[in-house]
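Researcher: Quick one. two chains, 861 residues in total.
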Amino acid sequence: MSRTTRVLTVDDSASMRALLNHALSTNGFEVSQADDGVSALEWLAVNEVDVVITDINMPRLDGFGLIEQVRGGTRHRDRPILVLTTESSDEKKARARAAGATGWIVKPFDTDKLVAAVRRVAH
Amino acid sequence: MSPEEIQQIFFAECEESLAAAESGLAACQAGTQDADTVNAVFRAVHSIKGGAGAFGYVALQAYTHTFETLLSDVREGLVAIESKLVDLLLRALDTLSDHVEAAREGGDAPADAALISEMEASMAANAGGASEAVEQAPAEPEVSEPASYDSDAESSSDYELDLDALLDDLTAGFDPAPAKAAEAAPEKRWKVHLRPHSGAMRNGSEPLLMVREIASLGGECVHCDISQVPPLDAFDPAQGYLGWTFSMPEAASEDSVREIFDFIGDDCALAFGDDAEIPEVIIVAAAPKPVPAPVAPVPVSEPKAATPQASAPVAAAPQPAPSPVQEPPADAAAKAAPGAPPAPPAGGQSIRIDLFKLDRLIDLVGELVIAQAMLVQRLGANGITANEELSLLETLTRDIQESAMSIRAQPISSVFSRVPRILRELASSTGKHVKLDVIGETTELDKTVIERLGEPLTHLIRNAVDHGIESAEDRIAAGKAPEGTLTLSAEHRSGRILISIADDGAGINRERVLAKAVEKGIVSADAQLTAEEIDNLIFAPGFSTAQTVSNISGRGVGMDVVRQNVKDLGGRITIDSTPGKGTTFILTLPLTLAISDGMIVNVGDQTLVVPLASVVESLRPGDGEVQGLGSNRNMLNVRGRFIPIVSLRSALGASSGALTPDEGVLIVVDTESTGQAALLVDEIQDQRQFVIKSLATNFRAVDGVAGATILGDGRVALIVDVDGLVSNAAPGQERQAA
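Model:
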């Protein structure tokens, strides 16, 4: 069996991060957390990751801004990034996709769907 | 972390979000209506909604959904910000606060139907685009459940170096055997054709994973179209040259296949049905290559623009698939969407720490300060003073202390931000509209102080509006503006914080206060009281000036409770009232509870600390100011009022020290239970800050002693429990009041 899939969760809400952390780590993922886009970039600068899950609305640097920076960089350019969205409308999906997201997780999520989404994109 | 703990975090966040929304809306009301402000309010409500959904607070989620949608419309400029709207948003926020409370306490959700329809009406009236928001039920289940995620998906995580599996995937199409087997099977199978194109590999997507997922649903590859694979020298790994046809078992639904491709949408052309064909290949120049795009004259950075063509063969699939492939309203919207909205200004990053750890740090810093002072004293005794290293150590120690204190510090705005709501509620119940002025809301003070400040502050504000500010008619008659003004201010002054609550009302009606106090037996009818003393009567237990007990400030708690609350915080409250002009309550509070101010006094060979919060004044009695009462009691005449003199020597059983007032100094102190008293001590040594150590924890509880502290010279000094000492020493009628 290969190594554990490493997930970075980015959300300014500590409770949402805790929920993600709980759901993912109980399913065997290795979870790190960042509380907004800026701290996510700082973390990514010195760490490796397999999947990034990010909220969209955050202070300092929002989710789309984070994706733009990651895609514009070199190191994590091809990393799958899932966005947390409260709506599953086609418009929102298209927007997330256009912004460079690999996929999305609709909030509120249930653990199965979250894990499925992460596995679907984890290289 | 348990789910309960996560919920606790959520509710703490709700409080922060509510305060942020409140201050944002207050800014809107004051005229600051820029994008950042509106966005901050939106984000606050959005964040509550997210958590509400995650924790299953359906009512809260449903309510925040409407609220958020309205805010979203405001943010998008669909709904104009005008005072009526801000008013609606503020009321919506009040109800949101009630919703959060209900969710936390497990109580009934507040009635919000009227407010929701009002918000919806506001969206409909302003935009006409509100219908989408209304029909989108918040608790609506989202994308359909994935069929299954079993061991196959699990194993996909190790494919990274699994070349065999990779080859199997690629060569499956070259082997006609499985296809025949599938067609020969009696089971009714159906076909899906797919061709991921270049876009499917954008954004970190990996089509191979999707192909594998199809296989995990029971799909078998019956055909792999390799006709488009170019010669090796023209091969671009970012392009999708391959197309597949899978034979799916009947049990696998079309939806479950679509679900797999949900993320990449139209970047992978799908066609369903036996007669459909693998969609045509679309080659788009990869971004860095200077090759002209063969398909469409679009900017190379927008490969997505090629997708409309991709959808054509899908839509034209002759076999009537259960439902045509959904085309997202895609490109226009995608292009219109800005890549990234400007990041709002830094909202202050934070880290959550267990309060216990923080208190431990603060305690240790307190010890450090003492140790440093001891060192200075010890070295001084050996003739080592004015030493450079020593003064550096002193500066550093002080800096560390200030930094440690500031960790616990929070801006007082978290308390002040609740005031607008209180005023709105008061406005609707009393009809008195009051304008709020806030000064110094960024002033910081200890978190514990802040938490315990809310109640007394709320009471003082209710009191100011209810009793202080006159009705609009009375105000006009008095030549004032019909709308009263309440001014809240906070400022640091010499190591303490001053909070004032000022109204421009009628001022304290001293005649009525005095009459009431006499009637209640608080003072005697012939007492000669100064204006200040009369004002202070409103703090007496059981005093209420309202002629009818209103439901606003007359809630069973009087101003005496307010004073007690403030005193518990180591603070004091004073009144400054001018008839016709208004009343100001001034709260003087310590910056932190960990360190207090005290008067260091000597009694015989003992050094004691009297908490400054209790001290009113200190004096040496003049001739005739002390009157004997019985054999061994003395009374002090303070401006016409007699208060008992308590000798600390006899109260604490010290072996030496002043026994009669002319031998020492009197410290007039305020006590809750027995009113004022004068403590007799030998001399007052100093006034300084001290760290309280519990005697009960380290030794045992001792009557008359509140705790201990370590002095600069390393000696332990006991802190006098003023209340306990005075009531023990005065066993008369005062004792009954205790």
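Chain B has five domains: 3-135, 151-327, 355-410, 412-590, 595-737.
Researcher: Thanks, that's what I needed.
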